[in-house]
Design brief:
Blueprint lengths: L2 H6 L5 H15 L4 E13 L2 E9 L6 E9 L1 H15 L8 E11 L3 E9 L1 H22 L16 E6 L4 H11 L8 E6 L7 H13 L7 E5 L14 H8 L5 E4 L8 H5 L2 E3 L2 H94 L2 H6 L4 E4 L2 E2 L11 E5 L4 E5 L4 H9 L1
Parallel strand pairs: 3-5, 6-7, 6-8, 8-9, 9-10
Antiparallel strand pairs: 1-2, 1-4, 2-3, 4-5, 11-12, 11-13, 13-14
Helix pairs in contact: 3-4, 5-9, 6-7
Length: 428
């Protein structure tokens, strides 16, 4: 059959065919349906909300179904406000949603599902499940409470700030620090980051890495977000960002600026506050508490010194009063010790003298016993030769003079050797 044959038989135009499909859909799908799906694309155009919906295979990222969905402006603004109020986020890519939809086939634009309602409780459940899975993994890694083990330094005055440069919250934070009533001087350095949308995670991690490169320049890190919409905070609920915050070596303070349930990085941070201004107030109060503690310690120190001086003055006065008595006692004790020493010396001298006298007497008796005059009186004689006592006759020769001493006198003789005596002596 040729094209001419089709024309002859009255072929449909595309518009007619689409209109037929539209009538068929309207006749067979005449109600609305609640559908579970994941948003793969989302955008707002002139107040309308356009989405691409997908369904993935279990445990896989492969889509098994796709569809387009639209929410017209007259419904979207109300549904958007209700959804954000409940979840703190605008429906966005990667979010699982429960939608009430009606079929619509437009001859010019094709088929789409028209969204008439959202059920935020379903999304909240999925968000909570994801957050619980992240929290469970952080605890299994042992990093969930790492930041809590850090202490904000007493003099935390060098602040690394992660924020959008143009955010009103960043300005509020800096102004609150600068205008503190105590006159404290804080230094801040901004590490710019995207604080809303899909780039939150990578942007904040990059800022943390930049701070790490000059770690010694700072005391704490403050992550703040304020002055904008509270929607789309999903970027703060990611595992990678939470791990980076939890493992950071400086205390991290978060002031994300939302009233819903705390984000995962709020949970792992050292300290969580609601707003950027509250983060500034925390740092001011920390330094004020230190200043008050120093003042109190100074007051206590002055009081303790005054008390100690009084006590020492009283002690010196008492010692001064005791000095005469102590001197008299010391003098008496010294005199007594001196007397005792003198007595000991005297006794030792007397004992030594007695011992020496006895020894001298003994020596005298021995000397007297050896006195040669006593031997002479007993009939003994001494022969002297050359002024010495003669002990060996062989030393004499004829003609020598010898002197014999007796008890009653001295006799001088000349030596004359007799031949017989000598011969007899030689025979001996």
């Amino acid at each position: 059959m040729t094209a001419t044959d089709y024309s002859a038989q009255g072929a449909m135009t595309l518009f007619q065919l689409n209109a037929l499909v539209s009538e068929a859909i309207a006749a067979s799908l005449d109600t609305s349906y609640w559908v579970q799906a994941e948003i793969s694309e989302a955008r707002e155009v002139r107040g309308h909300f356009y989405m691409e919906l997908i369904q993935k295979e279990p445990f896989s990222s492969t889509p098994v179904a796709r569809a387009s969905a639209k929410c017209w402006n007259n419904k979207w603004q109300r549904l958007r406000n209700n959804f954000v109020k409940a979840t703190g986020q605008v429906p966005h890519q990667g979010m699982k949603v429960l939608l009430r939809v009606s079929p619509d086939f437009h001859p010019a634009y094709g088929f789409a599902w028209i969204v008439t309602d959202f059920d935020p409780t379903y999304t909240l459940g999925d968000m909570a499940a994801k957050r619980m899975a992240i929290i469970r993994q952080l605890k299994e890694e042992g990093v969930f409470d790492l930041q809590k083990s850090l202490t904000i330094p007493m003099f935390a005055m060098r602040i690394a700030v992660i924020s959008s440069a143009n955010a009103a919250g960043y300005g509020d934070f800096c102004n609150h620090l600068a205008d503190n009533p105590y006159g404290f001087s804080f230094t801040t350095r901004l590490f710019p980051a995207i604080m809303q949308g899909e780039q939150v995670q990578d942007s904040i991690i990059a800022a943390l890495n930049s701070i790490y490169d000059c770690l010694d320049d700072f005391d704490v890190v403050v992550i703040i977000r304020g002055g904008g919409a509270t929607a789309d905070l999903s970027g703060f609920d990611t595992l990678a960002l939470a791990e980076n915050v939890a493992n950071f070596p400086l205390p991290v303070i978060t002031g994300i600026g939302h009233e819903r349930d705390e984000s995962v990085i709020d949970m792992v941070a050292n300290t969580k506050v609601k707003t950027p201004t509250a983060a500034a107030a925390l740092l001011i109060d920390n330094l004020a508490n230190v200043s008050t503690a120093i003042d109190n310690l100074s007051t206590r120190l002055v009081a303790m010194i005054a008390q100690r001086l009084q006590a020492e003055e009283l002690r010196i006065r008492r010692l001064a009063e005791r000095i005469p008595t102590l001197f008299a006692t010391m003098k008496a004790n010294s005199t007594a010790r001196l007397d005792a020493t003198m007595m000991r010396i005297t006794n030792l001298a007397i004992a030594r003298m007695t011992a020496e006298s006895h020894r001298i007497q003994m020596l005298q008796q021995r000397a007297e016993a050896l006195d040669p005059t006593l031997l002479l009186k007993r009939g003994y004689t001494m022969t002297m030769h050359g002024g010495h006592i003669l002990k060996d006759v062989a030393k004499l020769k004829d003609g020598d003079t010898i002197e014999t001493i007796t008890a009653t006198g001295r006799v001088t003789s000349k030596v004359k050797f007799l031949a017989d005596f000598v011969a007899c002596d030689n025979n001996n």
